[in-house]
Amino acid sequence: MQPVISIQQLNKTYASGHPALKSIDLDIHKGEIFALLGPNGAGKTTLISIICGIVNPGSGSVTVGGHDILRDYRAARSKIGLVPQELFNEGFESVWAAVRFSRGLFGKAPDNAYLEQLLRDLSLWDKKDARIFELSGGMKRRVMIAKALSHEPEILFLDEPTAGVDVELRRNMWEMVRKLRERGVTIILTTHYIEEAEEMADRIGVIRKGEIILVQDKDTLMRQLGKKQLTLHLQQPLSELPPALRRDDLQLRDDGFELVYSFDGQQEDTGIAALLQTLAQHGIAFKDLQSSESSLEDIFVSLVRDRT
Ligand SMILES: Nc1ncnc2c1ncn2[C@@H]1O[C@H](COP(=O)(O)OP(=O)(O)OP(=O)(O)O)[C@@H](O)[C@H]1O
């Protein structure tokens, strides 16, 4: 399947000399919810801003719906709706005027029926004549989304959609994003909240210091989450595992002093008894053992941890 966004070897270094993005390769599939997860300053906003044509790329290429963002900027941009991190509140105009104006900016013919349905879907129809400054914070966010969708884009970017939003509003936002996906909109959201990625995303990408360090189906990631680990602290270090013990779920760590066994905690037979027996047969003794469960949070923290 043709990706709806294709990013190849994208680099960006700001004038300050700071390398914000390094050799990014990423494809976004049509109709998916993709969560880009990363700590402050990782490069999330820079990446979105380049795709949306707000920041110039350094080198590499980006296509949106097959259109190159530089050579074919207008065609590429018209496919995108962007809800930026910073919310700008145009004070005095009405909700209706704001969404009509946004649609016009993209050169689209007026379509009141489409805009009415959009405002209804976003539970804003009864506020259409209200001036934006009169609305609550949650409604203002929804107005930003309505504006972003006013020109019928196929792709919606949500940069930190629920930053500083209370739990109830966050859940409403998630509900709304799912409805948009049902309508066929591809959604890319950035977030600091692991819970949000876990709840919403079809796929998760993790970015750290300008590099994409993981892209994975959420379900696959969650299956890995169900894994438990048994760590055996060995009495004598091993330089390598005997052939009978070389397998994917067993790893030597800590200069050979630790043996880590990963297993599925849901299974009745965890394989621990058999493992301990094999260790005994090979004369591998341990002085201590501990078991632990990894969470998405653990995976994320260990991935983004600054090891330098
Ligand atoms: N206009 C700019 N000029 C110079 N450096 C910049 C500029 N914009 C961003 N940066 C730097 O590039 C890096 C990536 O910033 P970016 O805003 O993309 O990160 P982010 O992942 O969106 O962070 P946050 O989660 O805090 O929004 C940061 O180190 C930032 O200081």
Give a brief outline of the structure.
By secondary structure, the chain is α/β, with parallel strands linked by helices. The chain folds into two domains: 5-222, P-loop containing nucleotide triphosphate hydrolases (Rossmann fold); 227-295, Alpha-Beta Plaits (2-Layer Sandwich), CATH 3.30.70. 32% of the residues lie in helices and 28% in strands.
What does this structure look like?
The chain has two domains: 5-222, P-loop containing nucleotide triphosphate hydrolases (Rossmann fold), CATH 3.40.50.300; 227-295, Alpha-Beta Plaits (2-Layer Sandwich). It has ten helices and 14 strands. The protein has helices at residues 44-51, 73-78, 95-105, 112-121, 137-149, 167-182, 194-200, 218-225, 272-281, 296-304, and strands spanning 5-13, 19-28, 33-37, 59-64, 67-68, 80-83, 155-159, 186-191, 203-208, 211-217, 227-234, 250-253, 258-264, 286-293. Helix 3 packs parallel to helix 5. Bound molecules: adenosine-5'-triphosphate (ATP). Adenosine-5'-triphosphate binds next to helix 1.
